[in-house]
Amino acid sequence: MIGEEEIEKMRGVVRDCVSKHLYSSAIFFADKVAGFTSDPADIYMQAQALFLGGHFRRAFHLLNASQIVLRDLRFRYLAAKCLEELKEWDQCLSMLGDAKLDEHGNVQDTNHSDLMHIYKAGEDREISISSAIFFLRGKAYEALENRSQAKQWYKAAISADPLCYEALECLIENHMLTCEEERDLLASLQFPSEDEWVSTFYSCMIKKHDKEVVVETKFRGLESLGCSTSSPDGPVISTLKNNSDLMACNAEYYHQCGDYQKCFELTSTLLEKDPFHLKTTLVHIAAAMELGHSNELYNMSCNLVKDYPQKALSWFAVGCYYYCIRKYDQSRRYFSKATSLDGTFLPAWIGHGNAYAAQDEGDQAMSSYRTAARLFPGCHLPTLYIGMEYMRTHSFKLSEQFFVQAKIICPSDPLVYNELGVVAYHMKEYQKAVSWFEGTLSSLPSSVTEMWEPTVINLAHSYRKLRMYDKAISVYEKALALSTKSVSTYAGLAYTYHLQCDS
């Protein structure tokens, strides 16, 4: 006869096997423990060992055969996870129950009074099981291409438990929310006082078009956040200053500001320390593209294809290399391969469209941009590029409509204001153009750099067209202070002096 003490020791063996990734051993002993006791907790342990060992069908059968699966949320959730791994999405949703979302995003008819409980009391902090279930619903709806429902369930998951980072990651990485929606969601999250740093970290991850002083203050605050630990030599204070995720967020900010050199330097430093940090790798590739570093792109793409042949990022890097050396046919081939591996990888869709646009193949470029706009409603770039394509073909009214739509999605991107100014200039609406160009310069997160010299020149041209020659001359001189190598600036300035004399 085996006693309870021996059974408990065997449970410890199962847990230890799992921690050492000896899943076959864990399955073997968990099966025997469950056979001896028929305890629901032991059946769950057996199912979990089967799941971790990759035996999803068998784990699901074990859970589904038990009478507890419809009463215990843990059983139901694990059964649904098995169906997720088997890509049986409709059955996965069915297993999770009939919960609905109302028009305000609140969960109704869950038949579980404790579903919205956020934090559990206990020694360890636990992610709410309801939050995990909501997140899995979102994944299932996204796999079924019902992105509107997926977005709502991801929002429900992060609202049910702000520590469910994966839900926020899906919302951000898949560009499901506009800038305003991202800010509203973060403002609505209920964080305990000890987790305020998490709230600040999340705010650094969303689209960053705020003024430089605001964003830098957030980064500096997180970098200085310390934790004291004891060591034989006395207390040691560790901070997040060199944290990979925080540095990646900082690099993203520099990229969005157009400071590609600073972005590239930061990502280079980070990749030396953590060469497999894929979020940083993507930003690094984007910065290298803007700077024309084809050798760096070649080395990066070779390493990525070797280490991650099944990831869209790897083939996107190859496409970027060919785009950088102006071999657009090859770049399209690899961007297309990236989208076939992961249809939710936005940069590849944008790159695919840009490669067509570079060869004036507008219809194919538009097709890629429209697909991106449909898949990523929270990202304004596809809409912006559609407007640029219409402007290239002199369809100014149509281009203006898309630029306005891009502004609604992201009202703080200076590039949108600049394009609205350009299209107004082409339509000879010079007063409106002045307003948009001034709005561009005032919305820059930092001081005006050489990158924005064309905007300054366009503003001067607009003032000249309005016969406001003194203002035009002043703005031309500001453009020359940014770059002394622009022929158009000198020509515009000379022509303005000529017109001023004639008047």
UniProtKB/TrEMBL annotation:
UniProt TPR repeat ranges: 131-164, 312-345, 346-379, 414-447, 453-486
SMART domains in alphabetical order:
TPR (SM00028)
Its keywords, alphabetically, are: Cell cycle, Cell division, Mitosis, Repeat, TPR repeat, Ubl conjugation pathway
Pfam families given in the database record: ANAPC3, TPR_7, TPR_8
A Gene Ontology annotation in the biological process aspect, one of them, is: cell division
Q: Which GO terms describe its cellular component?
A: anaphase-promoting complex; cytoplasm
Signal sequence, renumbered to the chain: none
Q: What PANTHER family has UniProt attached to this entry?
A: CELL DIVISION CYCLE 16,23,27 (PTHR12558), CELL DIVISION CYCLE PROTEIN 16 HOMOLOG (PTHR12558:SF9)
Q: What is this protein called?
A: Anaphase-promoting complex subunit 6
